[in-house]
């Protein structure tokens, strides 16, 4: 059997310098080439899981482990995780004034290549990559000249995230509520961008509130998240059932 | 002048002797009566010179033909060594000459020292627009010495010109003064930039004075980075309606450096506008000060002045002290000031790192981004590149 892209084992996480436990024993295995959805209500710990995967400071893993292609993910810094092939599409992409989007894209791609011991991209090569990938996401070149995410609409920010994902060709894509703030047209463009990246060697973890996104990005498996753990797993029918019955049926809060 | 007995420090006595030797008896008398500015004088509140200037050089700088190292390709060049004019390119439409110094004595002892130590003043008259910028290289050459320069620039109506000054020094712990005055004629469009490239232990006091006439336009930028102790005193006076100026400045400090930029802008007539943008980045135990005062005279209606000072603290013990002030005596004006001070944003750092950029590179990107708006307005590529190189070198030195 091949090594899964991601294995989360009994993961317990709390906020640093606070007693509040957020993740309380997450178990999840994501085989290569599969798309799994995580659904859960607000505050169930979904976004914390995405931040812990990406390596954000401020969280303490108190128990459990995360293996990324068989390696201990928690030993790696955020930039090393990116170079190793992990990508988090942010729910709220960060605006960074003064850093032009193109400058950032080039710096990020070359930093990853450098960490992997590859040569830097030549400028024409880089330009072509960006041009091709942005055309598919209907991103115009003017947007790329602006400072990173500054003044981008909600839809533009999400498309810029997927553009980065397309350029970086990660092994694991974590999509944190990529559907939030998108109208139907933008949702379609973004979903097509994501589907285009589906590949036998690439896995995706799609975090969402709503089943709507899963009509576009059809998952292989669905996990229901509640109070810091996975309480139920199933195929895509589970998402439909969840939509019908509500979260209460699944997390034991039903009357 | 108020006369009272001050017990002078060794440094003050030394400076008094040097003023005597420089032939500035009036400045000596004023210093002896008052001593150097201390924290009790409002303008020097954060830069107490009785404490900070405890050691002063033993000698006046001598005439010297030391040459500057800073080069700008194709710029016209004027070289001042220890305040004396040693070279001036022939520039069409520009007259450059050295004249006898006109000394005045006032309440500010540092300005008195500046005038007292100057042995000549350089008069630059620009009578028509010049396409290539003028580079004034100010070299302070001579071990452990005191030198002062005075430069007066006048322009004809409607002239466009750019002046880039560099401060350089071969000696380690020198003390230098530089006075720069520019009369910004009606309808003229001028740029004045000062880049300091001093030696590490230099102490430097600069005064920049600008008079702005009708429909004049001015942009300035001061950089503080290469010295042990530095203060730049900027005084601008709006004298003609329709004039606009953008004042900019940067303290980029590390170690135990102390940099003070003090700005006074006087909107004395109606319908004038200005922006003031000052940034500080400090590491280790460095201290950056910005004091900015905008005064709007009673009949200066429709003044629009926007002042912003921003500080970036890269170490726990570094300090940024800002004091923005508005004194508004007119009732129909638009004036604002703002001050921010903080560390690099952890969310910004995480976003960049989550894309594979190392922490050190992410920090550098954010520091450059912080400075971008200050440099973006400088259109000359060579000057822009010099500014960026300076920041790169500063960042590299810290790694």
From TrEMBL, chain A:
<dbReference type="InterPro" id="IPR003593">
    <property type="entry name" value="AAA+_ATPase"/>
</dbReference>
<feature type="domain" description="ABC transporter">
    <location>
        <begin position="6"/>
        <end position="252"/>
    </location>
</feature>
<dbReference type="GO" id="GO:0016887">
    <property type="term" value="F:ATP hydrolysis activity"/>
</dbReference>
<dbReference type="InterPro" id="IPR017871">
    <property type="entry name" value="ABC_transporter-like_CS"/>
</dbReference>
<keyword id="KW-0547">Nucleotide-binding</keyword>
<dbReference type="GO" id="GO:0005524">
    <property type="term" value="F:ATP binding"/>
</dbReference>
<dbReference type="InterPro" id="IPR003439">
    <property type="entry name" value="ABC_transporter-like_ATP-bd"/>
</dbReference>
<comment type="similarity">
    <text>Belongs to the ABC transporter superfamily. Ycf16 family.</text>
</comment>
<dbReference type="InterPro" id="IPR010230">
    <property type="entry name" value="FeS-cluster_ATPase_SufC"/>
</dbReference>
<keyword id="KW-0067">ATP-binding</keyword>
<dbReference type="InterPro" id="IPR027417">
    <property type="entry name" value="P-loop_NTPase"/>
</dbReference>
<dbReference type="Pfam" id="PF00005">
    <property type="entry name" value="ABC_tran"/>
</dbReference>
<protein>
    <submittedName>
        <fullName>Fe-S cluster assembly ATP-binding protein</fullName>
    </submittedName>
</protein>
From TrEMBL, chain B:
<dbReference type="GO" id="GO:0016226">
    <property type="term" value="P:iron-sulfur cluster assembly"/>
</dbReference>
<dbReference type="InterPro" id="IPR055346">
    <property type="entry name" value="Fe-S_cluster_assembly_SufBD"/>
</dbReference>
<keyword id="KW-0175">Coiled coil</keyword>
<dbReference type="InterPro" id="IPR011542">
    <property type="entry name" value="SUF_FeS_clus_asmbl_SufD"/>
</dbReference>
<feature type="domain" description="SUF system FeS cluster assembly SufBD core">
    <location>
        <begin position="141"/>
        <end position="370"/>
    </location>
</feature>
<protein>
    <submittedName>
        <fullName>Fe-S cluster assembly protein SufD</fullName>
    </submittedName>
</protein>
<dbReference type="InterPro" id="IPR000825">
    <property type="entry name" value="SUF_FeS_clus_asmbl_SufBD_core"/>
</dbReference>
<feature type="coiled-coil region">
    <location>
        <begin position="1"/>
        <end position="28"/>
    </location>
</feature>
<dbReference type="Pfam" id="PF01458">
    <property type="entry name" value="SUFBD_core"/>
</dbReference>
<dbReference type="InterPro" id="IPR037284">
    <property type="entry name" value="SUF_FeS_clus_asmbl_SufBD_sf"/>
</dbReference>
